[in-house]
Amino acid sequence: MKLELYYVDPEAPEGKKIFTAPVVPMLARRKFLELEAAKEAKGDMKTKGYTPDEFDEMCTILTDIVFRNQFTLEQLIGGASEEYINNKLLEAVWGIKPSDEIGNSEGNKTGK
């Protein structure tokens, strides 16, 4: 898995740095499920979205588990957009990359 952060290292070309993780451990999905279970146990499942603390905890899936502390939570949040972070979480937890369009208008292989 690859992740790009901007302005993490002022000496990096174009103000960005690329981080890689050779494998995404199953622990990433487990952590996500634990966070969702905790949210459900509090009765917060009807609340759309996450609180800032919940979002930070969700982001630690990337910082601590997938990329094994190659960058901090602050560097992640300060160096990428919310949409980009959400896409990377989707990729880490469920294996869905942004290029894997769900429900595109062309249909699936048998439906074309």
Overview of this structure, please?
The protein is mainly alpha-helical. The chain has one domain (2-94). It has 4 helices and 2 strands. It has helices spanning 27-41, 52-66, 73-79, 82-94, and strands at residues 2-6, 16-20. The chain has a two-stranded antiparallel sheet. α2 (52-66) packs across α4. The longest helix has 15 residues, at 27-41. Mean pLDDT is 85; it is low at 101-112.
Fold blueprint:
Elements: E1 2-6, E2 16-20, H1 27-41, H2 52-66, H3 73-79, H4 82-94
Antiparallel strand pairs: 1-2
Low-pLDDT regions: 101-112
Average the pLDDT over all residues and give the rounded result.
Answer: 85
Strand ordering within the main sheet = 1-2
Quote the distance from N terminus to C terminus.
Answer: 31 Å
Any idea what the shape is? Answer: globular
Please describe the biggest sheet, giving its number of strands, its sense, and whether it closes into a barrel: 2 strands, antiparallel
Taken in chain order, the helices and strands follow as: EEHHHH
- Number of helical regions: 4
The helix/strand class is mainly alpha
**Residues in helix, %:** 40-55%
Give the DSSP E fraction (strand runs of 2 or more residues).
Answer: 5-15%
Number of domains: 1
Number of strands: 2
- Rg over CA atoms, rounded to whole Å, is 16 Å
